[in-house]
Design goal:
Shape: globular
Mean pLDDT: 88
Number of strands: 0
Number of helices: 7
Radius of gyration: 21 Å
Largest sheet: none
Strand content: under 5%
Oligomer: single chain
Distance between the termini: 44 Å
């Protein structure tokens, strides 16, 4: 009779039981906030559930630390984006300020766009944002970034492909 391999959910449950407290403490030391640490520990285990090959972990804490660092990095990025968004809203004349519902939709769109463009070189992201957000022409982008129009087109194609294939 063959020995049944544990399912991914069983493996994650064991990983959670054995290492959740340790991971939460690790995150608490980095964040200084027990509530955020608990939230990010949960986010880390959600990522573990979505990961492949968790049944063959040799170093579970190293695995969890790697995922938690990514979750933590995303947390800080979102905080920075949120702060920039609130600053942009504060700089708007009141008559142009979006409603609370529009603010939420716009912010979530910004977060998703940030996620989509993550990993692209800064000049590629900058060219894409200058085109899509600021509405600049290829020539204007080239002048602002000090690059050729052909390079602007390559950058925009690269960013557009990233967004297209992410859908």
């Amino acid at each position: 009779m063959p020995i049944a391999q544990p399912s991914v959910n069983q493996t994650v449950a064991g990983l959670y039981q054995e290492h959740h407290g340790w991971l939460t403490g690790w995150l608490r030391r980095r964040l200084g906030c027990p509530d955020n640490a608990a939230d990010l520990a949960q986010d880390t285990f959600v990522k573990v559930l979505l990961a492949r090959d968790t049944a063959q972990l040799v170093e579970p804490r190293a695995f969890l630390t790697t995922i938690a660092k990514r979750v933590l990095s995303n947390h800080y990025r979102r905080q920075d984006l949120e702060q920039a968004w609130y600053q942009a809203l504060a700089d708007l004349p009141e008559c142009y300020a979006p409603s609370e519902e529009e603010r939420a939709v716009i912010f979530e769109t910004l977060v998703e766009l940030d996620r989509l463009l993550d990993g692209l070189a800064m000049p590629v992201r900058r060219a894409f944002l200058l085109s899509q957000v600021d509405g600049l022409s290829h020539g204007e982008i080239a002048a602002q970034l000090g690059i050729s129009i052909a390079t602007v087109k390559r950058h925009l194609n690269k960013a557009a492909l990233r967004c297209y294939f992410a859908l």
